[in-house]
Amino acid sequence: MNKIINILSRTQKKIIIFFGDFFLNIIATIIALILRLEKININFFDYISSFILAFSVFIITFYFFKIYRNIFRFFNFELIKYFLYSSIVSIIIFYLLIELVDIRGAPRSIAILQPIIFFILVCIFRTFVSYIILFLNKDNLKSKINILIYGAGYGGNEFLNYINQKNNYKVFGFIDDNPKKTGSYLNGVKIFNYKKIEDLIIKNKIEKIFISIPSLDKEKRKKIINNLLKFDIEILSLPFTENFEKLNFDLDNYTKINFEDIFGRNIKLEINSQLIPSNRSIIITGSGGSIGSELAIQIINLKPKRIILLDNSEFNMYNLQKKIQRQNISEDIEIIYLLTSILDKNQLDFYFKKYKPNYLFHTAAYKHVNILETSVIQAINTNIFGTLNLLNVSKDVGLEKFVFVSTDKAVKPSSIMGKTKRLSEIIIQSYSNKFNNKTRYSIVRFGNVVGSSGSVIPLFLSQIKNKEPITITDPNVERYFMSISEAASLIIETLNLKSDASIYVLEMGERIKILDLAKKLINISGYSIKNENNPNGDIEIKYIGLQPGEKIFEELYSGELIKTENKNIYLCKEKLFSYNDVTQILNQLDAALRAYDSDKLFKILNQIKYN
């Protein structure tokens, strides 16, 4: 019997239930006539109009209240509510039809008796079917995944209705922060206070918690998730939406908790659409990278005249092109893809004179700290002399704004990557002071971006997926983190600030301990940490020691920090170098590069007093 139920399609089940209701409707009409006429021996053909009216009203009201869109195998209080509404409307329609139209064989009292009896019979029938199915499925309960639903409101109730038709899930209870709901029931499922959650998880071997509160904002979501993470259990959540009544509460809409849910900040950024006038041409170097590609998408949405996307990686350029093609782009925007290197000054000079860009966003750079420690020649060539090439070709075409994307590793730099980026900052500032042309220069400095190629998060997630040990350099390492979208938006916002080769520091919030990050990523993935206290855990954390050039924590500035009109952007006043001093350093580096003298390059970089 249970196999037959499971192989039936939803439409087939609807048809069976409909005919069951149709039969009950006839029975209800018969009982109503018996009660009205106070006798059993009745010629029901004389009252055929009562049966026709009852059936018609039943069809109208059940269709209007969408009774057959509900789950049949689980009868709950929500469904009773709709049956009750249907019965009340049925009485009204039934009575009006009999009263307004002279129908023979349809007593007025039938209009009240029949819907009430039908309501009782339908409720009994649905309850009976639910218990039969529950009895047939009792052998399968042991194989079900035990879950809790966080949120005993509209979203939780809708998800319960959906999840009850899934054979592989069993809901043990609701969790809700509202103490007034504690101890009560929602559709037959008990509501517990958050303080009881640990006991529930242990006693009932709960494997997953579904956060089913679609109206939950980022800060409240983060608070709930951080409270749940200590239980070493998989957490899934609905995305935030203001119009949640139209949301489908199925499993596909519940996603695993990600970094943004744990550490994300509740910052809403709206870019001023006037920052980039529609008659301007924009060029982005390193446009295929994490920051470059996000800048490209956001700037395209501001609808400039032309955007020139430059990158030396064919693969990155291909991915960017596909990403842009998925956007709804105005045909008035000219998009140019340039596969070239910032080291090729002749090509840069040709393209800059051809397209005459107004704004330049320079994101191209080598950024991997460990790799650059053994690749000093490539690091200096690209990060320093590539930037110098762009400064020179920009000067010749009358560029309006030059925005350089820097890093927190440029502050008191200890790595080749940090030193080359800091020297690039120094070059831009000295260049601006020397030539005093119409170009406005700005430097934007921030920490790690979530999901970028150099971020530890993709590495950790890959290790967790493969159940490999998570590798951390040191238990005390801390880093700043920001979403790619937020970083790109604030970079664009710096165009609105008065720039004189200033260093702008983005508001990054508090530094995050990498060890805490690793633990939380393990927990949200549904795994436990393997250590001395839990030798049977899933994922181990290993410490491999600080790598060359790495620091325990990074800083965003070393000088004076000043507020700007944008609360998320600060102005940083740091040491300035004269153009002559910078020229001398560049000449030394150039000579060592020509000789491929890595030791000399290291020595020159180490002798510079950056801050």
Decide which structural class fits the backbone.
alpha/beta
Oligomer type? single chain
The fraction of residues in strands falls at 15-25%
Strand order of the largest sheet: 10-9-8-11-12-13-18-23-22
Number of strands: 23
Alpha carbon gyration radius: 34 Å
Give the terminus-to-terminus CA distance. 79 Å
Keywords:
45% helix, seven-stranded mixed sheet, alpha/beta
Summarize the topology.
Layout: H1 2-7, H2 10-37, H3 48-64, H4 77-100, H5 110-136, E1 145-150, H6 154-163, E2 169-176, E3 185-186, E4 189-193, H7 197-204, E5 208-211, H8 218-228, E6 234-237, E7 255-256, H9 259-263, E8 281-285, H10 290-301, E9 306-311, H11 314-325, E10 334-339, H12 345-355, E11 359-362, H13 369-372, H14 376-397, E12 401-405, H15 416-435, E13 440-445, E14 448-450, H16 456-465, E15 470-472, E16 478-479, E17 481-483, H17 484-493, E18 502-506, E19 512-513, H18 514-524, E20 529-530, E21 539-543, E22 560-563, E23 569-573, H19 579-594, H20 598-607
Summarize the structure.
This protein is an alpha/beta fold. The longest helix is centred in the N-terminal third of the chain and has 28 residues, at 10-37.
